[in-house]
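Rotation project, supervised by the postdoc (A.L.). Task for the rotation student: set up a whole-complex structure prediction and record inputs and outputs verbatim in this book. Inputs entered:
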Amino acid sequence: MKLGGYGEDRLVAELTRGLPRGGDVRVGPGDDCAVIGRPRDARWQLLKADVVVEGVHFLASDDPRRVGWKALCRAISDIAAMGGEPAHALVTIAVSADEEVARVEAIYAGLKRAAKRFGVSIVGGETSRSPGPLFLDIALTGWVARTRCILRSGGRPGDALYVTGRLGGSRAGKHLDFIPRLAEARWLAGHFRPSAMMDLSDGLAADLPRLARASACDFLLEEDHVPRRSGATLAQAFSDGEDFELLFTLPARKAAALQLAWRKKFPRLPLTRIGELTARSTLTPPPSARGHDHFA
Amino acid sequence: MKLGGYGEDRLVAELTRGLPRGGDVRVGPGDDCAVIGRPRDARWQLLKADVVVEGVHFLASDDPRRVGWKALCRAISDIAAMGGEPAHALVTIAVSADEEVARVEAIYAGLKRAAKRFGVSIVGGETSRSPGPLFLDIALTGWVARTRCILRSGGRPGDALYVTGRLGGSRAGKHLDFIPRLAEARWLAGHFRPSAMMDLSDGLAADLPRLARASACDFLLEEDHVPRRSGATLAQAFSDGEDFELLFTLPARKAAALQLAWRKKFPRLPLTRIGELTARSTLTPPPSARGHDHFA
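Outputs recorded:
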């Protein structure tokens, strides 16, 4: 059977079954990051790998500085989604021997700019020849206070469902320039402790069911509340992917206080309540609204 | 300028200049692993990323189980070369949508086998589509007691130069099945504390000058002492690469005790003294004996 018809979530579930796992692994595959530490440690380590491939996540004609920025910021967005802070990055780049040195240097310039902005130390990496497209993989460590670590799995029926920013249309350029919601996620984890959180990388239609499934819930989505980028259709807001906004849940009783505090703290970034988690087996998204499957 | 004529070491030096670097980075790019921790911490964290690319590090026709084994064992070999123990791995795989699910599962079977054997927890990863060859990148964390952390840079003029095993000819198959020298390196770090150590991945002719340069030394190589695999020429022992043996240095006064203790502890693995470090500017290897440059 070919990967193309298999489904990415199914493949990952298949591959990660029966993985060897030590006693210090708090969370393994399936959340935004792996979480490592002993149950009572004051802080836990977060680990994330994230890859961009030429022709899939960016084009050969894209500005290489923006490609470098994007690659590191994708991984930072995952650390943010756990409530954490990024720390150390390893950069793997595989590139044709015919490539211009200047292009690789420009990718690194973008990586360095993102690293400086978000407090990341680039501590090593690997260069290899590629007989095909350029491949840029980031491994990123981070830290989170144990009491502020937010998983996908903590949502409960009745929790309100929120999204930051506006969705859809990221391919027009935002996917290369986005700002990971690091400050927002840390503030949320410190002040409102979302019950569940993740970053939107494959589109709401793919990612929301993942969060609900991890929380053993279904969800009710108020489609006309989904905040769209200017010009984006609802289908695009559902399925374009690479929004890199936060999707999170919160007990409904905290909703009013959150919205007030958010508007003061982040007046320029919309925060929108788009629905709620429900007990299992009520509504599921229409089949037309699918998110991004890397092998589809 | 194209990468192909630029030289891998020069490229890496260029790219890693001026990287943002926090106060907890003990060793950044340039050694087998990055080393993270405060100066007086009892143990430091090791970080390593290592990639294998189809058509470069393995062939499409190679047994995918052995490809998975190789990918993880390469990174384990780097952790070993610092005197450390591996801990947690992230696996990034980029693969064509036309690929068979069974091949990816077999790669994972090889990864799992290596992880179980060497005590590694695979805690996450990333799957992506590749419009070209299969890429398999491993990010691996590890730990080393601060007092047993061995860098490339600690060698001194007069130190004896050792290599484990036999070199050359790895492409005939050993490169897919090698055993990283984890037990040997930990024993060395605990009992003899090598002044400098690294693993041989690009061939002695490329790697020995790197160790000497990091230690601000030159070296004297006794070419006829270099242990060769059965059938390998001296040139192959110098330049084939992917030996994944340990290269290390030790004060000459410890040499007799080391060789006695080694023969008792590891009777089936040769340990060979192949030369010594010297003060700067004596001998350098002949230009014919170059190691593997990924872009050459």
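Student's summary: Chain B has a mean pLDDT of 93.
Supervisor addendum: Chain B touches chain A through 76 residues (CB under 8 Å).
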